[in-house]
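As the work plan foresaw, the team has encoded backbone shapes as discrete tokens. One protein thus recorded appears below exactly as we store it.

:::
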Amino acid sequence: MAPFPYRSYRQQEWIAVYILLIIWAVLELFAIGMGYLGNRIGTTTPAVAGDGGAAVDSGGGAGGGAYSKHPQQWRGGKAARVARYSFIMAFAATTANELGHGITRAVSILIWAFFALSIVYIFTSAGARHPVLPAAIGIPQIIIVLVAFGLAFRY
């Protein structure tokens, strides 16, 4: 049997998808870790004689040891969400091309461009809260994925 003609492009595209999967997993663990650390911030000191028996909360919440979020928890959660959606889109485009007419050099280049934009989007979303950021990076990502999907159904 003859070797697959686009083996190197095929492998390169799946490598990009696999790296996005790894980034998503690492960021998800980071977000879970920040949530765990956030639950440990709120502590309660025992009641002191003469204060009416009320516990004093040093976590800033309403008595009884209220839990608070870690200050960096939103960063990990948002970055993990962006990484998850990036992985799902790259996986869907790669699978469609794999099952369609096959992965070509053009599709591989598009997926790697999508990968590069995903990395930029993941780290900027973790570092900045700006309302224009999702549209500024998300629209080019969607266009790239739509073109990659379109190449899967070409004639």
About this structure: The longest strand covers residues 44-45.
